[in-house]
Amino acid sequence: MSDGVLIAQGTGPVIPDFGEGSKCVTENRLFCPDWVRDNWHSVIQPALLQHIKLTLIAVAIGFALAFVAAVVTHRYRLTEKPFGAFSAVVYTIPSLALFQLLVPITGLTVTTAEVALVGYTLLILYRNILAGLRSSPPEVLEAARGMGLTRGQMLRRVELPLALPATFAGLRVAVVSTIALATVAAFVIPQGLGHPIFLALREYFKTEIIVAGGLAIGLALVADGGLVLLERALTPWARARRVA
Amino acid sequence: MTVANLDVFANAVRFIVDERTLILHKTWEHLELSAAAMAVAIVLALPLGILLGHLHRGSFLAINLSNVGRALPSLAVIAIGIAFLGVGFANVTLALVVLAVPPILTNAYVAVDGVEEDAVEAARGMGMTSWQVIRSVEFPLALPLIFAGIRTATVFVVATATIAAIAGGGGLGDIIVNQASYRIEGVVGAAICVSVLALAADALLGLVQHFLTPAGLRVGSGAFEPDVVTGVSRL
C-alpha cells in the first residue's frame, strides 16, 4: 500500500487545516480552485488512486469467486434459492455497520474494507453470471450437442458468450456499488475518496467536499460508461441484431 | 462465525431491549426521514414517468436516468448536498430524494410504455379521452411494475438513510456512526433494526402491491426477489 503519500492526519482528532488561507478558503466559499491546485498532489490524487485500487481489487476477487461458483452451480444443476434470500437480506445491512463489525476480526486495515467490498460484489455477480449461463435457448444447446461439442466446449463456446450481457449488467452494478461502498469504507480506514469527504464534512470545508464527492460520482459514471463500451466491443452480434 | 462474534449479536439484542426508548425514538426519526424522502420522490417522479410512458416519449431520459441514478455514490451525493445547503433534515431528505427518483421514474415509464397497445386501442375506440385511458386502462395495468419501482426505492432509501446521520439527519444512523458512545453492541443493534425496518417495509409494500394488482394479473407471490439485472444497489 502506498499509504505514505497520504494525509498526515491519520485517524486521531483533526486540526482544521484550511491551507495557506487564501481569502476564498478562509471564507469557506463554495469552491476554491486555488485550494484544489495546492492540494491535488498531496490529498486528492492519492485518494482517487486508492479508491480505484480498492475497487479493482474487490471486483477482481469478487468476479473470480462468483465466476467459479456460478459455473459449478450451473454444471451440477444446484439450486441457488437459499443464496437469493441470503443476498436479499445482506443488502439491507447498512454498510457503515458491516465495516465496523469486521474491525474486531481484521482490524483497521485495508483487508477489512476489501472483505466487505468483495462480499457485496460476490452477491451481485454470482446471481447475474448464473442467470446468464441459464439464458441459453434450449435449441441452441441442442444444436451445439448435435454438432458433437463436449460439455466443456459448450460452456466455452456457447454458454459463456451468451452469458456476457447478463454478466456485464452485473459487472456494471458491482463496479458502481463498490465505488459507492468504498467511500463509506473510509469510515474505518483512511483510504479512498471517502477519507477527504469525511474529514471535510467534519470541518465543513465545502471545496474539499465538492471535489472529493464530485470525483467519486465522476468515477462511478465513467466506470459505468466504460463498461457499456467494453460490452459493445465484446458482443458484436448484439449490435448486428439491433441494426437488423 | 467466531464465538466472540456470536457474543456481539447476543449483546446487540440485549442493547435493543435495554435501550428500547432510544431505539424507538431513532427508529421513528428514521421512518420520518425515509417517508418524507419517498413522498417527495413519488410526487415528483410518478406523474412524470406515467406521462412519458403514456406519450411513449423520452425513453432515453427515462431509462438512462436510472442507470445514472444507480451509479451515484450515496455518501458523495449527501456530502455535496451538505456543501450546498448545510446540515439538517431538509437537506438530507433532498439527497435521499435524488437517489429515490430514478427507480420510481424508470419503472413508471417502462410500465406504462409497455401496456399492451391493443388494450389502449380498444379504450380509445370506446371513446375514452387520454386522461380516461391513463386512469382506467394504463395505470391499473402498469400498477404492479410501478409498485415494484417504489419498493426498490423504499428499501434503498431506508438502508441509505443510515448515512444521513453523518449529515445530522438523525435516525438509526446516529447510533451506528457513534461507536464511541454506544459500543459495537449498539452499532450492531441499530444495524439489525435498519435491516428489519427495510425488510418489513418491503414485505408491507409487497402485500399492498398484491392487493392493488388486478386479480387477472396476479402471478406468483410478491416475495422479496431483487431484480437480477438491476439488483437493489448497495448500502
Structure commentary:
The complex is a heterodimer of chains A (244) and B (235). Helices cover 75% and strands 0% of the residues of chain A. With 244 residues, chain A is mainly alpha-helical. Chain A is elongated, with a radius of gyration of 22 Å. Chain A starts with 22 loop residues before the first helix and ends with a helix. The longest helix of chain B is centred in the N-terminal third of the chain and has 36 residues, at 20-55. The radius of gyration of chain B is 20 Å and the shape is elongated. Chain B has a single domain, classed as MetI-like fold, CATH 1.10.3720. Mean pLDDT of chain B is 83; it is low at 220-235. With 235 residues, chain B is mainly α. Chain B has helices spanning 3-18, 20-55, 59-71, 74-85, 89-113, 117-125, 130-160, 173-176, 179-212. At the A-B interface, helix 3, helix 4, helix 5, helix 7 and helix 8 of A face helix 1, helix 3, helix 4, helix 7 and helix 9 of B.
What labels would you give this structure?
heterodimer; A: 244 residues; mainly alpha; MetI-like fold; 10 helices; B: 235 residues; 9 helices; disordered C terminus
What's the short story on this structure?
The complex is a heterodimer of chains A (244) and B (235). With 244 residues, chain A is mainly alpha-helical.
